[in-house]
């Protein structure tokens, strides 16, 4: 067979073909059966799954919030529930930096408690915080 024969055969295939039976009746019957089908078990479980997911997110968010509000080892946050803020606004930036440094050092000490350098840095940071509190008392 050459290319011309293939083209003739393809043109002969380009005719409409009627199905052997009427398909619309079967399609209509299937659509009617699908609209009145009972709800599946999975559809009934969705509200419970949604409630469980919301409860899980709430518990996770609450635990994370508690962990961020009162991290272990930071006495000023654990006893008062919030970071100390000086009354003088000029000292507020230093207080935030010292609180952040104290928190990072306590976390680092939890990872390696035998580090003498981290212990010295923590003691130095606590002394700086005390100096800042004394400055705030003097400014008031």
Please characterize this protein's 3D structure.
The protein is an all-alpha fold and 140 residues long. The chain has 6 helices and no strands. It has helices spanning 3-13, 24-35, 41-69, 75-80, 92-111, 116-139. Helix 5 packs antiparallel against helix 6 (116-139). The model is unreliable at 71-81 (pLDDT under 50).
Q: How many DSSP E strands?
A: 0
Distance between the termini: 105 Å
Number of DSSP helical runs: 6
Q: What are the secondary-structure elements, in order, as H or E?
A: HHHHHH
Mind describing the biggest β-sheet? none
Q: What would the principal axes of the Cα set say about the shape?
A: elongated
Rg, Cα atoms, Å: 37 Å
Judged by helices, strands and strand pairing, the structural class is: mainly alpha
Unreliable stretches covering 5 or more consecutive residues: 71-81
Mean pLDDT: 79
As a percent range, the share of helical residues equals: over 70%
Beta content comes to under 5%
Summarize this structure as a short list of keywords or feature phrases.
140 residues; mainly alpha; 6 helices; 73% helix
Summarize the structure.
The protein is an all-alpha fold and 140 residues long. It is built from 6 helices and no strands.
Set down the secondary structure blueprint.
Blueprint: H1 3-13, H2 24-35, H3 41-69, H4 75-80, H5 92-111, H6 116-139
Helix pairs in contact: 5-6
């Amino acid at each position: 067979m050459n290319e011309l024969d293939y083209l003739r055969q393809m043109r002969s295939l380009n005719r409409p073909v009627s199905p052997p039976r009427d398909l619309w009746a079967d399609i209509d019957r299937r659509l009617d059966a699908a609209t009145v089908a009972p709800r599946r078990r999975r559809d009934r479980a969705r509200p419970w799954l949604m409630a469980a997911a919301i409860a899980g997110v709430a518990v996770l968010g609450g635990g994370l919030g508690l962990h961020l509000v009162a991290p272990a080892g930071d006495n000023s946050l654990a006893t008062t529930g919030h970071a100390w803020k000086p009354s003088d606004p000029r000292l507020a930036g230093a207080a935030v930096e010292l609180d952040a440094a104290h928190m990072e050092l306590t976390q680092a000490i939890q990872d390696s408690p035998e580090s003498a350098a981290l212990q010295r840095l923590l003691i130095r940071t606590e002394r700086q915080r005390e100096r800042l509190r004394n400055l705030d008392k003097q400014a008031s």
